[in-house]
Here is the input.
Amino acid sequence: MLRSEGRCLRIAANVQLRLSWERPFLELMRRSREVHLTLLASLALTLTACKPEHRDCVDAQNRKLPDSACQAAPGTSGYVPGAHFWYGGSSGGHPGDTVIGGSAVSRGGFGGIGGSADGGGE
Amino acid sequence: MRRLTLTPRNDWQRRVEKVGLTFHTLADGSPYWDESVYWQFSAREIDRLEAATAEIQRLALAAGDVILSQDRLGEMGIPASAHAAIRAAWNAEPPALYGRLDLAFDGGSIKLLEYNADTPTGLVEAAVAQWYWLQECFPGADQFNSIHEKLIAKWKDLKDYVPGPVYFADAGSEEDRMTTAYLEDTAHQAGLDTRHIAMHQIGWDSKRFQFVDLNNHPTATLFKLYPWEWLLAEPFAANALETLPPTSALREYGPRTDRHAWGSMLWIEPIWKMMWSNKALLAILWELNPGHELLLPAFLDGPRELTSFVRKPRLGREGGGIAVIREGECVEGSLSGDAADGYVWQALAPMAGGGGKTAVFGSWLVDGEPCGMGVRESRGLVTNNTSCFVPHLFQ
Here is the structure.
């Protein structure tokens, strides 16, 4: 993962593979009959790094709620049906304010450890 | 078993690249894929390795039951937040694809060194590159390697049970990317609709309570080459667990009947693999099967009576943090530092080697069945990410 003053950097590389191989197989052998690789694999290695996104807890009309409303389980005190987090929007910062812009989708919540290590395989 | 030398193919780099092994050379310019040597086995030795793999798998399954029935997940260092999900997944038996046992074998005894059950790599080398090497160099010989067709067969079995498309995710290293590309290829050949996504590209839709791809389409099935212990230490950990219904939810409601995200994504490998990819498993296996011929003495509380042993971090990766002690003296690695998740102390195993290197035999399982092998060679006793991959055959 590349980090630069909190801005997102993006690196892309595309590699394509088309592989094909077949051979007669002796039934008693323990190896694969064939290893036939046909998938056209476009390998896009995109590395991004972003600051944690700003989020607001909002109701179904995108009006700001306390964060606890999004963290409470159904049936518990503080639970508000339809409450959910909203990412990257802006508002006056007060409960009831309408949050504008942004999205219900947050990204970057996985991959942080692996992006700074040698990957997740071993 | 013999370690033999061979003149590498003139253009071996291009040949292995063509079949997906693009990471054939280490950063210092030395080969990672080393076809200047190969291991030759007898059919009987391969039979023994295969049988040992099946037996260890049986022991691991039994150990999983004991770990859960005796509530030992905490003792293994597995976070409490994951316990209910592990228990539920173990009981529900969602799809589990593959794993690799690392074995010591000197022609006599076979011993389990560790079980890479969650995110094993070395797959392109074992399943593909050494198969093509054999075709070109020893077309009349055989190889313990039906990994490719076993993977395709497993995906065919899963085709009607896993919601599509199946996403293949990794952290972006070249080796991991090629590994997920290969697994995606096998799933694709089995007729599944497949996609790739980088781990950091996965989104959480807080309105629909589900993970989504870059087009905000739900990722209903995710193969992740990314260890569960990392997933559970990252910002989406709670969301991931939210997609995994606890046992009580399965019992009371069945999957997919809410709350919010229960059952909204199928994870491959399943979260219960945290039990097997944790090196505490080695000590639990020994405790449950003391003296078993395929196991090494291993302990969670120290080396006990061992004078020659390996100290391994329970959640160590790629040989990191391992110290080798021979007759009380540290001969490789370091005893300094303190692993956050604790250690396992395991007796030293007799190892095969040659040319100043030590060999570890990675025995692959697909769908719980032994199906192939890859050999890694190291200058020392510890296999790490600079250990070479060496092909094998048997006559």
